[in-house]
Fold these 2 entries.
Entry 1:
Amino acid sequence: MRHAIDPGPMAVEDITPDVLLDKVTNLKYKEWRLMQICATKVGEDRYEVLYTFGHGYKMFSYRLTISDEDKINSITSIYDIAYLYENEMHDMFGIQVEMINIDFKGHLFRMGRETPFK
């Protein structure tokens, strides 16, 4: 069965941490909403962070591929709710996120092991 609205494939753009805030700010001004931020380990000391945004029935993502040593800027100054995703990335993967508006400093979750997916 075909749905009446077919948004097609979701576009993904690879970016570097230094342009993240500019890119996200641009989407905010165009009234895109933050849908999710997802981190995953893609290799030894390498992580992929996917920022997904929606506008109507369209979806778009920015993808960062970072190492253990890389630091990324928080987008909480643009999207307040990002603090939950960013604290989760820090607690679960050890990803260093700077300037989070509400920073739980590694204590968002009660876990038996520090950064279990690092």
Entry 2:
Amino acid sequence: MKKVRITAVRKTEYPDLMAQYENPIEHACDVSVGQQWVSVDGKCPVGMCPSAWDSMKSFAEALARGEGNFFDGWMQNPASAMISCNDGFRPVSFYLEALNE
């Protein structure tokens, strides 16, 4: 199986939605733009947010198996995917790419 590099490429926050719908919380997302992880054998990397992993797991597993070209040409690099976590208040976009190691 291939290793899959996961890179946080964008982090957004929606204060208006947070004010309107979210209960106040003391600790939110720790992910930083540029942060990277490597998935080995399609497994969740150490330190990866479990909720973010749930959003990307099927794509990471497919890339690890050598699959790709999701949605018939969606990505310029067919061995990659752009996936966002499911936090509607502060979503993070992750770039997943199969490594040829």
